[in-house]
Amino acid sequence: RCHGRHEQRHHLTYEALAAEAKKIAGQSKKMTLNASDIDTAAKLVFSKDLALQAMNFAHKALDKYNSSKES
Asked: What is the pLDDT of residues 32-70, one digit of tens each?
């Protein structure tokens, strides 16, 4: 039961992050999100420390993904 609430909280956090990133992209009339939009949204949605951790994790994941595509 507790596990479900934890998943729900994560889902709501991701929803808030995605909604903020969508607003940021929309303000510049872009059809797609980029890393900068996500970074800015993280800074607005999360506390400073959590935003930095989230951005660091996301950039590492993106680097790993891009290097796997090159192989």
From this structure: 888 888 899 999 999 999 999 988 888 888 788 888 877
Neighbours of 65 (CB within 10 A): 9
Q: How far apart are CA 16 and CA 24, in angstroms?
A: 12
Considering only residues 45 and 31, tell me which one the structure prediction assigns the higher pLDDT.
45
Q: How far is CA 46 from CA 13, 51, 54, in A?
A: 9, 5, 9
Dig out the tokens for 42 from the structure: 């993280």
Query: Can you say how many angstroms the Cα of residue 40 is from the centroid of all Cα atoms in its chain?
Result: 9
CA dist 69 and 54 (Å) reads: 23
Residue 3 has pLDDT above 70, yes or no: no
